[in-house]
Amino acid sequence: MAILVMGGTRFFGIHMIGELLSHGHEVTIATRGHAEDEFGDRVNRLMMDAADAGSVKAALEGTFYDVVIDKVAYSSADIRRICDVIRCRKFIHMSSTAVYDPLHMDTCETDYDPFKHELVWLERADTDYDEGKRQAEAALAQQYDALNWTAVRYPFVVGTDDYTGRLKFYADHVRRKIPMHIDDIDMQMGLIRSDEAGKFMAFLAESDLQGPVNGCAAGTISVREILDYISEKTGKKPVLSEAGDEAPYNGLEEDYSINTQKAQEAGYHFSSLKDWIYELLDELIRK
User: Fold this and answer.
1) Residue 60 near residue 66 (C-beta atoms within 8 A)
2) What confidence tier does 287 reach under pLDDT thresholds 50, 70, 90?
3) Closest CA to 73 of 110, 121, 115
4) Strand locations in the chain, DSSP E?
5) Is the Cβ–Cβ distance between 205 and 249 less than 8 Å?
6) How many CB atoms lie within 10 A of CB 129?
7) Tell me: the pLDDT tens digits for 190-219?
């Protein structure tokens, strides 16, 4: 299939493109051209600024792709610039579990319905990340439903290649005895590994699955469990202080897990978080 990927030159986008290429698809990457990628002549390339309607039109008008994977839209206006021009059989939008308000145990796709959310045409700078993603999905559902769209909702994506460094924050702060502020050390949360996040996106390109779909490793973990493991491996105790550095994952309202039954029924089965999280922490401790 001919597949257009908008964005995707870092983090789990690299895993996704690698998986698509391994399946024999013809991949075109559309970016602003600011970041290099590792794919050489195995992919085609387009120059495009997704925030500029003229740039999007110049790059995409008159083209057709079997699948378009959007990793750059953060608002309803972003979706409109792309979807007013693009022609494809399937449109996959990288959304987020941030659309849920709030997250909770066994969070299901039906907990946020983009068909019922009030659609407001806005730019990403006009609102916060969470509402921007809700509006992006609402635009797809209410204005571009004929595109045969899928919105992929991931929680925090982790890995040794995680540019946000969330898990590495804990490894570094324990090893160096740097004080950190954690607002709820026992809160349970769901995660997904970066390579699996990429593989699931590639799976969806070949799937008939439509509408919102969750992706997440099975099971949950708390920051306390993460710190206990790092402490055991390093022989150092974490330094907790309200005056310390603000820790990643602060601000979550309650324990949450992500229901992935919809993906499972479509044929994709996610890994178990506890099967790989400690090996990942080992790697981050060594870095």
Assistant:
1) no
2) confident
3) 121
4) 2-6, 26-31, 44-47, 65-70, 88-94, 149-153, 156-158, 180-181, 188-189, 191-193, 211-214, 221-222, 245-246
5) no
6) 12
7) 999 999 999 999 999 999 999 999 999 999
